[in-house]
Amino acid sequence: MKNEFPGRIKAIALDVDGVLTDGTFTWDTNGVEYKSFCFLDIMGVSIGSQAGLSFFLISGEASPLVDRIASKLGIADVYKGCKDKAQAFKTLCEKSGFKASQICFMGDDVNDLEALGLAGLSVAPANAHESVKAKVMMVTRNSGGRGAVRELIDFILSETKKIE
Questions:
Q1: N or C: which end of the chain has fewer CB within 10 A?
Q2: How far apart are CA 126 and CA 162, in angstroms?
Q3: Is 3 inside a domain boundary?
Q4: Is 6 a member of any domain?
C-alpha cells in the first residue's frame, strides 16, 4: 500500500509521445517502430511512486510501446488509442477516485488541450506546441523525453515539502 501523499496533487497523468519521448520515432526496414525514453524520467516516476504519487498514461497511440513503457514504469492504469483525451481523463477520475483538481496532466500538443483544461495542474514540456504552452499553468525547462517528467515530479515533491 502506498503512503498517503500529502500535497494537493495526488496523481500525475502523462501523455507518452512528446512527453515521455521527444516526439520522434524511427522505423526499421521491416516497419518496426522505435522510440527513446529518458532514464531521468524513469527514475522520477519511481521516486514519485515511492513518495505516494499515483501515475497514469493517456496516449493517442495504441502502440505496444505504450504498454512496454507502462510496464517499465510500473503504471497499471493506461488509456491508449485515445481520440478524446478529455474523456479518458474523466474516466480516469471516476475509476481512480481522484478529483480532477488532484491530478496533474502533462501534454504537448493540441490533442491534449481539453484534458489539460480539466487538470488541477496542467503542464507542458519545453518543446510543446506554442498553443499548448500558452494555456498551461507550468512549462518545464526540459523538453519531452529529456527530463521534463522528472523536473515536474521534483517540482511537485519539493512543493509538498514546503506545505508539510
A1: N
A2: 25
A3: no
A4: no
DSSP per position, the chain: -PPPP-SS--EEEE-STTTTS-S--EE-TT--EE----HHHHHHHHHHHHTT-EEEEE-S---HHHHHHHHHHT---EE-S-S-HHHHHHHHHHHH---GGGEEEE--SGGGHHHHHHSSEEEE-TTS-HHHHTTSSEE-SSPTTTTHHHHHHHHHHHHHHHH-
Q: Look at the block and give the residue holding cell 524520467.
A: 41
Domain carrying residue 146: 11-26+33-163
The CATH number that applies at residue 154 is: 3.40.50.1000
Tell me whether residue 91 is in a domain: yes
Number of domains in the chain: 1
